[in-house]
Design a protein that fits this description.
By secondary structure, this protein is mainly α. The protein has two domains: 14-332 and 346-354, no CATH class; 441-550, no CATH class. It has helices at 12-15, 19-34, 42-53, 73-84, 89-115, 125-131, 134-138, 146-161, 166-178, 183-197, 202-223, 229-234, 239-252, 255-272, 277-280, 282-301, 313-321, 326-331, 336-339, 342-354, 382-386, 406-413, 426-435, 451-456, 471-474, 489-503, 509-515, 521-525, 527-537, 543-550, and strands at 403-404, 424-425, 446-448, 462-464. It has a two-stranded antiparallel sheet with strand order 1-2. Helix 10 (183-197) packs antiparallel against helix 16 and helix 16 (282-301) packs antiparallel against helix 17.
């Protein structure tokens, strides 16, 4: 079976970026820096990676407790060698953002040549719609996996239009390691690649098997689990909240207008005979839209995310890429006088997209100090940009983000003669801590819900009060008051802090507390389930023992229910 597509191979000159495409690259890089920010959750990765590299604890949040509290294995694995090179986190995240923005641009230029019919003038609609988009450019930073998600989205679109594109095929295969829900578009890609080429898409399969396969073995042997801890925390059904989350992004960026407009354009081109079905690549566009819809359904089902756009990065970018080539099909039949207006039309579209901003902001975010207001329980990135703990200069090479403040130093060193006046660089304190031969058990257990503070309190074992990294709290069936946030966990978090303070971070601690007659009722009622959860978190890294632990299932429990 022939590979889909109507165009002949473009000439070498046709592959060269146009001046508008170069302008899009410059705009993307500048906006990536101007909109740069750090999501507090990024410091979960920081604590895991620094524990591995600088403190010799392994890939853990707490010493001796094996819980996969980060959402993206691929992002975590990428951060490890970059952090080992000596880069500060704020610099590292910005450099990664710029690299992913540039790589995404290159894939979009390549996509434009494949999606347009032969001889059509390159307009590159998707590049214009994405390069000036506030949310897209914001999420090339953030410190979490969103840059890889957006890169994978464009790679997925490119693969659908050209299953022979090797880098795109590899990105598609790696996608489930970036985020678990990206296994959904992987299925679509495998089916489409097989249908389009008449062959099994071995490169996609190989990339998926060689990345996800070894990680699953590692996850079972190291964490005694099949999914990240955050999956249990966020796995709920809340369609009402999820649909509001979809609406928040769709309304902001004109999806309700642009989607019907592009659909009508495709229909008009087909009806008028200006383009054939083969030239319009309707099959490819259908696969892209179905894949985007599948991820949207999953996001809506779990109730979305507390942050504008983040969980919709993949479907949004894929849906935008589904429009690629349609304007080229229309433009080639326009009068020559009108075709000469293409640059002006492109710049107008870019300015229009660049002017859009979320409902959560009182003004345009180019002004980094613009006021933020939560809408429908959804925050924008601006909330974190403005926070005093995360307010770093995007244009400064060294923003001072690696310095420990006096509060963190006091909590970390108050019982030792090592206390000095801060602020001090955290990596220097890592070295002094290691030289002193100290361990987390030498310090009090602390309950913390703000991840940047958790990263700075590196000497202590911490119970994350929101459940991100705690296996007990993540599995508690507590209603959420907003996406992935459960106010009711705070009460139970205090009990877990007291448990760990009295009995340590070890298997059997819950049973000992219950037997002592001092445990809270919810622990006593669910002691067998909690004991099994502890066995997983404090496992011995025996693969076969851990497989037996997996047979116990998800081990969720209701703290307010009847118990085991």
């Amino acid at each position: 079976m022939a590979t889909p597509g109507a165009s002949t191979t473009p000439t070498p000159a046709a592959w060269r970026p146009t001046w508008i495409e170069w302008l899009c690259l410059a705009a993307s890089l500048v906006l990536t820096l101007q909109y740069a920010w750090v999501l507090d959750d990024a410091y979960v990765y920081s604590r895991y990676v620094d524990n591995l590299l600088h403190l010799g604890r392994g890939l853990v949040f707490n010493e001796g407790e094996y819980v996969e509290g980060y959402s993206s294995p691929a992002w975590c694995l990428l951060l490890i060698p970059l952090r080992a090179s000596g880069l500060d986190w704020w610099l590292l995240w910005r450099l990664l953002g710029l690299a992913c923005a540039a790589a995404t641009w290159a894939l979009l230029v390549s996509l434009a040549r494949r999606a347009a019919p032969a001889g059509a003038r390159a307009f590159n609609t998707a590049l214009l719609l994405l390069s000036f988009n506030y949310a897209v450019q914001s999420y090339f930073t953030s410190g979490v996996e969103a840059p890889l998600v957006q890169l994978a989205a464009v790679g997925f679109a490119l693969y659908v239009f050209d299953p022979r594109h090797a880098p795109a095929a590899v990105l598609v295969g790696l996608a489930p390691l970036i985020r678990h829900e990206l296994a959904l578009p992987l299925v679509f890609a495998l089916a489409w690649g097989w249908r389009a080429t008449g062959r099994i898409p071995w490169l996609v399969l190989g990339a998926a098997a060689l990345s996800l396969g070894p990680w699953l073995v590692f996850r079972i042997a190291y964490y005694a689990d099949l999914v990240p801890n955050t999956f249990y925390l966020k796995d709920e059904v809340n369609w009402t909240r999820g649909l509001r989350y979809l609406h928040d992004t769709a309304l902001t960026y004109g999806v309700y207008v642009l989607a019907p407009a592009f659909a009508l354009l495709a229909f008009a081109l087909l009806r008028s005979g200006a383009a054939t079905k083969r030239e319009l690549r309707l099959g490819e566009r259908g696969v892209l839209l179905l894949s985007a819809a599948a991820v949207c359904v999953y996001v809506a089902k779990i109730g979305g995310d507390p942050r504008h756009y983040r969980y919709l990065a993949f479907p949004f970018c894929v849906a935008v890429c589904a429009s690629q080539g349609l304007l080229e099909c229309a433009w080639r039949t326009a009068p020559a006088r009108l075709q000469r207006l293409a640059p002006a039309a492109a710049l107008t579209l870019a300015l229009g997209v660049g002017a859009l901003h979320p409902r959560q902001l009182a003004g345009h975010p180019l002004q980094r100090s613009v006021e933020h207001l939560k809408v429908d329980e959804i925050n924008d990135a601006q909330y974190h940009r403005l926070h005093e703990d995360l307010d770093f200069d995007p244009w400064a090479l060294d923003a001072g983000d690696e310095l420990l403040d006096d509060i963190a130093l006091d909590l970390a060193w108050r019982d030792h003669a090592l206390l000095r006046q801060g602020p001090l660089p955290i990596r220097g304190e890592y070295e002094r801590y290691a030289q002193a031969g100290l361990h987390a058990s030498d310090f009090d257990v602390y309950g913390e819900g703000w991840c940047v503070r958790a990263w700075k309190r590196f000497t202590q074992s911490l119970v994350h009060k929101d459940g991100l990294t705690d296996p007990i709290l993540a599995r508690a069936k507590v209603p959420s008051h907003r996406a992935a946030h459960k106010r009711g966990l705070k009460e139970f978090a205090g009990d877990v802090v007291r448990l760990r303070q009295r009995y340590g971070f070890r298997a059997g601690a819950v049973r000992d507390w219950v037997n002592a007659g001092d445990a809270p009722e919810w622990m006593a009622r669910n002691v067998e389930t909690l004991e099994a959860i502890e066995a997983k978190a404090f496992n011995r890294h025996d693969l076969f023992e851990n497989l037996a632990l997996l047979a116990r299932g998800r081990l969720a429990f209701d703290p307010s229910g009847p118990g085991d």
